[in-house]
Design a protein that fits this description.
This protein is mainly α. 86% of the residues lie in helices and 0% in strands. It has two domains: 49 residues; 50 residues.
Length: 119
């Protein structure tokens, strides 16, 4: 039974203790992979933190603007809702050529309104 067990050993497993073997090269690759993974994890974490901070800051600005200007906020929300409903209705229609003709001016108008109020 011992002969069957050793029959499946690869040469790299037998030379694991020798310097410069395939095992040492594999360990270098694994170490480099772990290093790159750690760097990527740190980068993603940093980007997430910055994004969360920016979103929180923007949320606070919107909250304070909406409490100072409730009427304008309602009109903006209404305009956004009507615009999105219009665009979604056109997207679901069977005539896609028509959607582009109406969607562009509506989106331009809504973005102009939003730019005016959020300056």
């Amino acid at each position: 039974m011992d002969t069957e067990k050793n029959k499946y050993d690869t040469p790299s497993q037998k030379m694991a203790g020798e310097p410069g073997s395939a095992s040492a090269a594999a360990q270098k690759v694994l170490d480099r992979g772990a290093e790159v993974y750690g760097q990527a994890e740190k980068a993603v974490s940093d980007v997430y933190d910055k994004t969360a901070e920016a979103a929180s800051k923007t949320y606070e600005q919107v909250k304070s603007y909406s409490s100072e200007n409730p009427g304008q906020t309602i009109l903006i929300a209404l305009g956004i809702g009507v615009g999105l409903g219009f665009l979604l209705g056109l997207a679901a229609s069977s005539r896609p050529m028509r959607a582009g003709r109406y969607a562009e001016p509506v989106v331009d108008a809504l973005s102009d309104i939003a730019r005016k109020y959020f300056r």
